Amino acid sequence: xxxxxxxxxxxxxxxxxxxxxxxxxxxxxxxxxxxxxxxxxxxxxxxxxxxxxxxxxxxxxxxxxxxxxxxxxxxxxxxxxxxxxxxxxxxxxxxxxxxxxxxxxxxxxxxxxxxxxxxxxxxxxxxxxxxxxxxxxxxxxxxxxxxxxxxxxxxxxxxxxxxxxxxxxxxxxxxxxxxxxxxxxxxxxxxxxxxxxxxxxxxxxxxxxxxxxxxxxxxxxxxxxxxxxxxxxxxxxxxxxxxxxxxxxxxxxxxxxxxxxxxxxxxxxxxxxxxxxxxxxxxxxxxxxxxxxxxxxxxxxxxxxxx
Length: 307
Hints:
single chain; two-stranded parallel sheet; alpha/beta; 13 strands; seven-stranded parallel sheet
């Protein structure tokens, strides 16, 4: 099977591509900078020069490869409006154009990265645009599988690098609403296995899967575990969400890639755990990959040992 992958060089993308290769699939990675694809994967992956913000470039890339399937992984956590990087453009514009062209040329399957928490009532632009992308994919008529992961754990998780850097300077961590927001972290390797398995399992066609780990915890409990492994003492500063949203707006104005954004706080509108909405398969890792999800502490030890 020939697979066209977007976001191959990102955090999740590298694991997904390696899992696709392990399954014997032929991978073509779309990128503006094909040298980065070569640097990461060598000759195991065929780089495809593509500007996914340009419809003609998307069409040309797909026509060159003529893949059997598309794995779409591109997403952002915060906007950089000065560079035209917005939720509307990245989460909705790119996949909408990609899937329209894929339909025209006869792609057989799309595997799409969404997010846990998408819902018509979600207040964040992140979740709203992710939901509209799901709707665009369904409307295309393409056979598809949609994955909604909780917080993804791995060595490249930005939360870990941000926390290590900032608490190394000032051992103080602001917590929105006391850090009581619950989540169900999932190992990036489990996510990758699920994506790869869905390509060859026809029973996953036109279904939505939530991807979560086995343990539910609060944001503060997650941070406690991280700082315990680092043997680093920090002071938590409990702040109302409205204050954190204001702080996020300030950070957005003065930083291109802020550790916190106003929309990131709005994403905490509901707990980030599986089974809240009833419109998806809740045990996605087990259902798709036939593996039990990795235990949180095992995943965290692996992630932090490589940082």
